[in-house]
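Amino Acid Chain and Its Fold in Token Form
===========================================
Structure side: the spatial fold of the chain, written down as a series of whole-number tokens.
Position: the record begins directly beneath this header, with no further notes in between.
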Amino acid sequence: MPPATLGPLSLLRASWFDLRHGLPIALRALARRFGLLGTVGILARVARRRLLADPLAGLPAGSLGAVEERLTRRQLRGLFLLDDVLERELDLPVAERLALLKPIVGEAGARFIAQGAKISAARWRAATDAERRGDAVKAMAHFPNARTVLRLATEDALEFDVTYCRLAEACLDTGREHLAPLFCHADALYFDGRGGRPSLEREETIAAGDPRCAFRLHLPSP
């Protein structure tokens, strides 16, 4: 299925999410690694780079809608700029950069999933087949940068494929393929089988070069 139709309100919500969740998560991670003064210096470098050049300026638009493209670029721009600062100005190798960026992207992404794609095991099991499929479609539509196909929605499982991921595509097209798997980490972090959440089994991902991301969610035993 295509992503849900979005409007300017989605951009405002994305800004609010960044202020409430994304930015604090990043600041805490940077402060743990570089201290307060080091973090301030990194933020200043990121701001300067943002003023000088857009790291996504040469990237052709993807095959989603205009608002979806803006949301995706907004999500990627800060990550790309921070990665550039860590690499080109602080001379951190890729392994160290990923060790720092992975928990930032993962925690922020997991909170984003929790806001719109939350699946209650009790509600899921009590629902009819039609209600489960409807809930699945709503959950998948929460991700504006992907196209999804529902495969299965039973009492114990939800299976769907992501057939197009603009995040992974943009990372690959800009030569930043090392960043693409970070977004997969957010899914694994949230769908960990704890607190009544489903557990995730996923052997194929677009970020790894596969033609799809094969999401296989298993609900915990009642």
The two ends are 30 Å apart (CA to CA). Residues 26 and 124 are 33 Å apart (CA to CA). Residues 1-8 have pLDDT under 50 and may be disordered.
